[in-house]
Design a protein that fits this description.
Strand order of the largest sheet: 1-3-2
Order of helices and strands: HHHEHHEEHHHEEHHHHHHEEHE
CATH class of one domain: Mainly Alpha
Largest sheet: 3 strands, antiparallel
Number of strands: 8
Shape: elongated
Number of helices: 15
Distance between the termini: 159 Å
Length: 523
């Protein structure tokens, strides 16, 4: 190869390379331009996308801000409305309170006006009353002057006489009331028999002696009456004062009457008279001495009678005080029936009946003997004699069944043993026998009917019932025609008429009942 070819080839290669380089550069330039253009396009797109994204974000933020604003605005408006409602409510309450205060103020003004009017009326009434009092006082003075002229007495003298009369009437009524209360405490009611056991009555026979309030002291001659009376009656007055009885010395031949409700006192008076007449020395000092000795002898006799009674009945272990009270029964009567004989009979009846029923006959006999022990208790007591006897039996350590039988024989307490009804029945059997007690059935019924008829005669009385064996009168009155004040007056008027027109033992309780009833029907 020659150099020309070499250079030609080299030049062609160089030209090819240059052309290639040029073309490459042109291609690279175009490529770079295209890439730059693409980059600008992408940048523009990115910027545009960024702007769109920013716009979207902006819009979102604006929407969120707007929503938050709207929410805050709603909450604010709600809070504002709530506070506004509270303010309105408070304002309404304030208005209501103002109205109430105004109404109260108006009421206060009206009340003040009414009070002023009432004060004026009261002042007028007081003034009128004062005038009436002055007029009444003037009329009273005129009447007093007229009465003084008619009666020739001053007002002070008339007042003293009226006070004296009222005092005398009050003393009389008080004495009558005290006497009736004492008699009621001493007298007790008896009940009819609930059950009569014929076999027991037939197997127990007892005398029925009726006691009375009078004893007769027989004397040999009427000359002794003068000694008993004494100079100007001093002996008989001393004897009555020492014994507490009434000595009646009359025209009855060879007899002196001793009257008194207490058999012990009558017996002391009788024995004292017997000793005085035998001794012959009758004067006040001797009378007091003899009466004191006789009283001591009677006390000894009472103990002896009690001991003899419990021995005869076969009762053992009684307290000495109970034995003494049993002896005192000999000188006590109940509705005319001797209390000791009655108690002995009840004891025998109780023993027989208890034996027939298979019960403890000894306890029944003991309870029957002691059932009326409360009647001879020397001290005054407000309790019924059955309850008082039960308390005495408990005090002296008697058996509980005996105590219950004593307290329940008039139904004051509940019966808890089988002996109690036996004692009650036997007490009724002993008291209801013909001749055992003084008061007969016919006279008893007649007295109760008279009592009811007497009360029915009063105006306003519609019904009346005599109960508690005639010791209480229950009067029912018409509530429309009889007021409460008139009912009180009616009870007093009935009691006064009974006292004047009737004879009865003890006292009668008058109970006036005024009852108002209103009746309606629901249909």
């Amino acid at each position: 190869m020659n150099k020309i070819d070499f250079w030609v080839m080299l030049l062609s290669d160089i030209i090819s390379i240059a052309v290639g380089v040029y073309i490459g550069r042109r291609l690279l330039g175009r490529l770079f331009a295209q890439r730059e253009k693409d980059a600008e396009t992408r940048s523009a797109e990115i910027i545009k996308n960024a702007e769109l994204t920013a716009e979207n974000i902006k819009k979102d933020r604006i929407l969120e801000a707007r929503e938050k604003y709207l929410k805050l605005k709603a909450e604010f408006e709600e809070d504002t409305n709530r506070k506004k409602n509270i303010l309105i409510t408070n304002e309404n309450k304030l208005k209501q309170r103002e109205q109430q205060l105004q109404q109260q103020a108006d009421q206060s003004k009206r009340k003040e006006a009414e009070l002023d009017q009432q004060k004026q009326q009261l002042a007028q009434q007081q003034e009128a009353i004062g005038k009436r009092r002055e007029e009444a006082e003037r009329m009273r003075l005129q009447q007093v002057e007229a009465l003084e002229k008619i009666a020739n007495l001053t007002a002070e003298q008339a007042r003293e006489q009226l006070v004296d009369a009222l005092k005398a009437e009050a003393d009389s009524r008080a004495s009558s009331y005290i006497k009736s209360v004492v008699e009621e405490a001493k007298l007790t009611a008896t009940k009819e028999a609930k059950k009569v056991v014929i076999e027991t009555i037939q197997r127990t026979a007892t005398e029925h002696a009726i006691e009375n309030c009078v004893s007769v002291f027989n004397i040999e001659s009427d000359d002794i009456k003068g000694k008993v009376i004494g100079r100007e009656g001093r002996n008989i007055r001393a004897l009555e004062a020492a014994t507490g009885v009434e000595i009646i010395v009359d025209d009855t031949p060879e007899a002196i009457i001793i009257s008194g409700f207490d058999p012990v006192r009558r017996e002391i008076a009788r024995l004292s008279l017997h000793r005085l007449v035998q001794d012959g020395r009758i004067h006040p000092a001797r009378i007091e001495e003899i009466v004191a000795k006789t009283r001591k002898n009677i006390e000894d006799e009472i103990v002896e009678i009690g001991e003899r009674t419990v021995i005869d009945l076969g009762i053992h272990g009684l307290h000495p005080e109970l034995i003494k009270m049993i002896g005192r029964m000999r000188f006590r009567s109940s509705y005319g029936q001797n209390l000791l004989q009655h108690s002995r009979e009840v004891a025998k009846l109780c023993a027989t009946m208890a034996a027939e029923l298979g019960l403890n006959a000894k306890l029944a006999k003991r309870a029957g003997l002691l059932h009326d022990i409360g009647k001879v208790w020397p001290e005054e007591a407000e309790l019924p004699h059955a309850v008082l006897g039960m308390e005495l039996a408990k005090k002296y350590k008697e058996h509980p069944e005996v105590c219950n039988a004593i307290g329940a024989h008039h139904d004051e307490i509940e019966m808890t043993t089988l002996i109690s009804p036996i004692v009650q029945v036997c007490d009724a059997v002993s008291g209801s026998r013909p001749g055992a007690r003084r008061e007969m059935m016919e006279s008893y019924i007649r007295r109760l009917k008279e009592l009811e008829e007497l009360a029915m005669n009063f105006q306003g009385v519609i019904k009346c019932y005599a109960i508690q064996a005639g010791r209480e009168l229950r009067v029912m009155v018409d509530a429309e025609n009889v007021t409460d004040e008139k009912a009180n007056t009616l009870s007093f008027d009935i009691s006064q008429k009974i006292e004047k027109e009737m004879q009865y033992p003890g006292q009668i309780k008058i109970t006036v009942i005024r009852e108002m009833r209103s009746v309606a029907y629901a249909k």
